[in-house]
Design brief:
There is one protein chain. This protein has about 300 residues and is an alpha+beta fold. Strand 8 and strand 9 form a beta hairpin. It has a five-stranded antiparallel beta sheet, sandwiched between helices. The chain folds into two domains: about 90 residues, Phosphorylase Kinase, domain 1 (2-Layer Sandwich), CATH 3.30.200.20; about 190 residues, Aminoglycoside phosphotransferase (APH), C-terminal lobe (Aminoglycoside 3'-phosphotransferase, Chain: A, domain 2, Alpha-Beta Complex), CATH 3.90.1200.10.
């Protein structure tokens, strides 16, 4: 079996996972393999028995994250206030699958949403505390932001051409003149502080909750050492009102970091809105809201 579809995902299924486990980790070959209910794009995840999960990159660009996570998650975990994935084994390419892959401990919980969180303002504070703890972790030898992190942790300027194409495509759909000011401000302020650890994709789907509380943070595939601005995007994608204010207050960060954070949020929301305007009305509406709130935030704090 090989990965044959244009998105790189169709060649990954439970049968492949069973073959990989049987060939490389026969001690687990008798355990059931079941797709997870909520899966990501960069990786496919399957539950292995009751206590483990198998995670496989869907394309070559995501494959470097396997070695990175296997190396660094055990080093970061002791310094963090909630659970993160624990790597139990690293698999090699095989059975027609071309990338390294991993077996991790299973983390209970549901992906975060305002409806699953008891107190969103308190939750925002806890997320900020996690980010601050991550930023305090030792960066010695850590992977500097770059290709492996899809340039999270670097300047959002890497996506300048793409962002401006999206702005042009959305003329008449959004207030492009005001949005351009947000983007230009994000590119105009460079970071002069020491680099710190960043997660790279602090989003509801990567935050697990149980009983309304944050219990784990998953998917460190875009993590690295650099500018933490990319980790502030959740201020607009999940938080609002008092919860946004609480997150902003607790996580701190200077004016320039918040300007770059607005740039990261704007880039992703623009790109998603272009992709889904004619195909997914609800998703389009969500990203339009993010764009408008980022613009308003810029005008409030710039």
């Amino acid at each position: 079996m090989v990965l044959t579809s244009s998105d790189g995902r169709a060649g990954i299924d439970a049968a492949l996972v069973k073959r990989l486990i049987a060939a490389q980790f026969p001690q687990w070959s008798g355990l059931p393999v079941v797709p997870v209910e909520v899966d990501g794009w960069d990786n496919r995840t399957y539950r292995l028995g009751e206590d483990m999960a198998v995670r496989l990159p869907t394309a070559a660009g995501y494959a470097p994250a396997v070695d990175k996570e296997c190396d660094w998650l055990p080093r970061l975990a002791p310094s963090l206030p909630v659970a993160i994935p624990s790597v139990l084994a690293k698999g090699a390419p095989g059975e027609g699958y071309p990338f390294s892959w991993s077996v991790r401990s299973w983390l209970d919980g549901q992906t975060a949403s305002p409806e699953r969180v008891g107190d969103l303002t308190q939750f925002a504070t806890v997320v900020a505390e996690f980010l601050l703890a991550l930023q305090r972790c030792d960066t010695t030898g850590g992977p500097l932001a770059g290709t492996h992190s899809w340039y999270r942790g670097a300047s959002p300027a890497h996506y300048d051409d793409e962002t401006r194409r999206c702005l042009a495509a959305l003329t008449g759909r959004i207030d492009t003149a005001r949005a351009i000011k947000v983007w230009d401000a994000a590119l105009s302020v460079e970071r002069h502080k020491a680099s710190v650890w960043f997660h790279g994709d602090i989003a509801p789907g990567n935050l697990l909750v149980a009983g309304g509380k944050l219990t784990a943070v998953i998917d460190f595939g875009t993590s690295g050492v650099g500018d933490p601005a990319c980790d502030l995007v959740i201020a607009w994608t999940m938080f609002f009102g008092d919860s946004r204010d609480a997150f902003r207050y607790k996580v701190g960060q200077d004016h320039g970091t918040w300007a770059r954070a607005r740039g990261w949020a704007l880039w992703k929301a623009l790109l998603t809105l272009v992709e889904c305007t004619d195909t997914d009305e609800q998703r389009a509406s969500t990203n339009l809201r993010v764009i408008n709130e980022v613009i308003a935030d810029h005008e409030r704090f710039a």
